[in-house]
């Protein structure tokens, strides 16, 4: 009779796992009662048409879990009362039917925001925010990874040569980005977003005021809101974020001065100095997110705002997602000296630890010159792609879109003519195979502008031309 209750299928789950779970369910539901003797493994195997090993494995597993008692040479006997089991565990089957979870207020709000944006699984032109992973020197990177893994035995468990990457990075940031940094101030994290989470956890109390750019990077508002901050979006003008003169300075200001996200605007020196003046009394912190400041095409990269700060009030955040590939999952934070030790402990508490193998591989990638070589090559390539996208948009859609040519970065904004809303246009474009993002979706309050955020770095010129042709036929 037991074989009639079992239904085994050829599937990925495997016969052993299926037989075990079906027998377990028969016992747990009370259909095979306590004291019931199961058939011998030889007999059950024959009746089910499976190997004896399969049945022996299932019996041993159920005995280990306490569902049956089995002793050598005897048929197994059911050891639990299914009805009691249901009362204790509240379930008669292995499938879990749970009540609607009561989420925290923070988690309840997560799905109401437009971030992170749900893109389709496959990357499509002209999705913004991506570097070209096809151009990444994967063979060289693989060699660095291999050497890091092999060298792990020599380095010893847990003894990440952290300073090697921090020192290489400090040297790069000081010489190429004008940051004031020692290796001790650098914290390697799994992403720039992790750096924002860490800063928020260390500094923000519920109700603290935080200013962010509007439109701006939604991940920043999300990180500070998660700590209970009152986040206010501050508008932009040609010089970048406005300093809101006459208003009480907040606890923290988040900004992307080298290349404002998403407009690409560069914050003027006068504006930078004004913001540093706001932070000087010692109550306001500034977070400078230099997520793609490496990519400047029309002039030398602008030195970081953090390098102008003599009072230790500025955090400098960076990521390898754009310079290398988003899959690398490494970002970093240059912390003000007074906060380094607190942040290091907080990092362990929150668990924002980056893999030591990858850190070691990256240290080697930088030390051997591959990082700067890749950066130089990508700067040339992305500049040509930016120019190509701008030309194509002007040629094919000039009357309909006006393009703000960014001096750097990996994406640009094409503004729609007055009266046209961007979300409807984005929907049509996505359906036609061109992925873009609505500028209005990056607004904190009432959107002031409508436009399309278009990525150019990740796409070859032929792909860009084809995408713009599709846009012309859709819009
Ligand atoms: C302005 C800005 N900062 C930070 C990030 C996130 O970088 P990461 O992937 O390292 O978290 C992004 C990602 O698009 C971004 O646009």
What this model shows, in words?
- The protein is α/β, with parallel strands linked by helices.
- The protein is built from 16 helices and 15 strands.
- The protein has helices at 2-5, 15-28, 41-48, 52-65, 82-89, 105-110, 138-155, 162-177, 192-203, 218-226, 269-279, 340-350, 356-367, 370-397, 422-431, 461-474; strands at 68-69, 77-78, 186-189, 209-213, 230-234, 236-237, 240-241, 252-255, 285-289, 314-319, 331-334, 401-404, 411-416, 437-438, 451-455.
- It is elongated, with a radius of gyration of 29 Å.
- It starts with a helix and ends with a helix.
- The structure holds pyridoxal-5'-phosphate.
- Pyridoxal-5'-phosphate (PLP) binds at residues 129, 191-193, 217, 219, 256, 261, 289, 291, 319, 321, 326, 331.
- The site of pyridoxal-5'-phosphate has 14 residues, from α9.
What does this entry show, briefly?
By secondary structure, this protein is α/β, with parallel strands linked by helices.
- In total, the number of domains comes to 3
Total beta-strand segments? 15
* CATH architecture assignment name of the largest domain: 3-Layer(aba) Sandwich
Distance separating the two termini = 67 Å
Based on Cα principal axes, name the global outline: elongated
- As a percent range, the share of strand residues is 5-15%
CATH hierarchy class name of the largest domain: Alpha Beta
User: What percent of residues adopt helix (DSSP H or I)?
Assistant: 40-55%
Order of neighbouring strands in the sheet with most strands:
3-11-10-9-8-4-5
Organism: Bradyrhizobium vignae
GO molecular function: transaminase activity
Keywords: Aminotransferase, DNA-binding, Pyridoxal phosphate, Transcription, Transcription regulation, Transferase
Family: In the C-terminal section; belongs to the class-I pyridoxal-phosphate-dependent aminotransferase family.
């Amino acid at each position: 009779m037991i074989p009639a209750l079992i239904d085994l299928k050829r599937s990925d789950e495997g016969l052993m796992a299926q037989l075990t779970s079906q027998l377990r369910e028969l016992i747990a539901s009370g259909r095979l009662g306590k004291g019931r003797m199961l058939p011998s493994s030889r007999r059950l195997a024959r009746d089910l048409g499976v190997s004896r090993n399969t049945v022996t494995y299932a019996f041993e597993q159920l005995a280990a879990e306490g569902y049956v008692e089995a002793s050598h040479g005897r048929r197994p006997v059911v050891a639990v009362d299914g009805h009691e089991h249901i009362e204790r565990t509240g379930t008669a089957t292995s499938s879990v039917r749970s009540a609607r979870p009561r989420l925290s207020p923070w988690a309840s709000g997560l799905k109401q925001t437009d971030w992170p944006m749900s893109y389709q699984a496959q990357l499509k032109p002209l999705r913004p925010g991506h570097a070209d992973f096809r151009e990444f020197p994967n063979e060289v990177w693989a060699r660095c990874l291999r050497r890091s893994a092999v060298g792990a035995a020599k380095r010893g468990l847990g003894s990440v040569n952290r300073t090697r990457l921090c020192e290489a990075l400090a040297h790069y940031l000081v010489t190429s980005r004008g940051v004031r940094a020692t290796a001790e101030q650098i914290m390697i994290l799994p992403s720039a977003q992790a750096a924002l989470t860490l800063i928020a956890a260390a500094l923000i109390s519920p109700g603290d005021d935080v200013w962010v750019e509007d439109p701006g990077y939604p991940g920043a508002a999300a990180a500070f809101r998660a700590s209970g901050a009152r986040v206010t979006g501050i508008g932009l003008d040609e010089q970048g974020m406005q300093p809101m003169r006459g208003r009480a300075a907040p606890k923290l200001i988040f900004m992307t001065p080298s290349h404002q996200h998403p407009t690409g605007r560069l914050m003027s020196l006068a504006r930078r100095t004004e913001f540093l003046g706001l932070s000087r009394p010692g109550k306001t912190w500034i977070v400078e997110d230099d997520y793609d400041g490496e990519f400047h095409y029309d002039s030398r990269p602008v030195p970081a705002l953090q390098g102008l700060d003599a009072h230790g009030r500025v955090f400098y955040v960076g990521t390898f997602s754009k310079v290398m590939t988003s899959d690398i999952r490494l970002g970093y934070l240059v912390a003000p000296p007074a906060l380094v030790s607190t942040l290091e402990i907080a990092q362990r508490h929150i668990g924002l630890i980056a893999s030591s193998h990858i850190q070691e591989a990256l240290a080697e990638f930088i030390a051997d010159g591959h990082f700067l070589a890749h950066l130089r090559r990508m700067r040339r390539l992305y500049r040509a792609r930016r120019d190509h996208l701008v030309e194509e948009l002007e040629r094919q859609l000039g009357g309909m879109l006006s393009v703000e040519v960014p001096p750097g970065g990996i994406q640009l904004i094409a503004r729609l003519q007055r009266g046209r809303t961007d979300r409807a246009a984005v929907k049509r474009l996505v359906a036609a195979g061109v992925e873009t993002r609505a500028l209005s979706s990056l607004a904190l309050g009432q959107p002031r502008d409508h436009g399309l955020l278009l990525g150019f770095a990740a796409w070859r010129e032929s792909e860009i031309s084809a995408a713009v042709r599709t846009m012309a036929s859709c819009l």
